[in-house]
Design brief:
alpha+beta; 43% helix; single chain; 4 helices; two-stranded antiparallel sheet
């Protein structure tokens, strides 16, 4: 049986056209969702690295300010955790995959990164070295141990602020992808 509209159009043909358009839309939507999902790890890595680098200028992590320098410490140059910039420059994206993003800091050039991020209290070995006395005479300081306290000044790790930023950036990524 054939159904025809009052204007003479074939309803079956219109339904077939609508089905084709719906299938095309479905494929387009599926493709855009796939593109957005594939872009998520890169967006997460970019947001996380930017957040970790910003900690050095904000001097705080997850809303908690860093402990200031001790009263006896007088820095020659720079600010809290930034003298040469090596620690800040060591922050880098190490791995990006569909399931995980790894951001690292430290390495061979910056072995103190972990001590600053997590804090440290313990004994350290001071190697033998030369010094010059107030009178200008050089002398050798023998190897010895000393206790050291490095307060925790986090610049990397899990953070509620970072989770909020990532969520916002991923939502914006999906919104932009769907609006194209």
């Amino acid at each position: 049986m054939r159904v025809v509209s009052p204007s003479g159009q074939d309803f079956d043909a219109n339904i077939t056209i609508l089905k084709c358009k719906a299938m095309d839309f479905s494929k387009e939507l599926e493709q855009r969702v796939k593109e957005a999902i594939e872009a998520v790890p890169e967006a997460v890595a970019s947001t996380a690295k930017r957040y970790f680098l910003e900690r050095f200028s904000e001097k705080a992590f997850d809303g908690e300010p860093w402990k200031p320098w001790g009263k006896r410490y007088k820095p020659g140059r720079g600010t809290l955790l930034v003298q040469s910039g090596a620690l800040r420059k060591s922050i880098d994206v190490d791995e990006i995959s569909a399931r995980r993003v790894v951001i690292t800091a430290g390495g061979d050039r910056v072995p103190y990164a972990r001590a600053h991020n997590e804090g440290f209290f313990g004994s350290v070995v001071v190697r033998s070295h030369e010094r010059v006395s107030k009178k200008g005479k050089p002398y050798v300081v023998k190897q010895h141990t000393r206790k050291m306290l490095v307060p925790r000044r986090r610049f990397m790790g899990e953070s509620h602020e970072l989770e909020t930023l990532i969520k916002k950036d991923v939502e914006q990524l999906f919104k932009n992808t769907m609006e194209r």
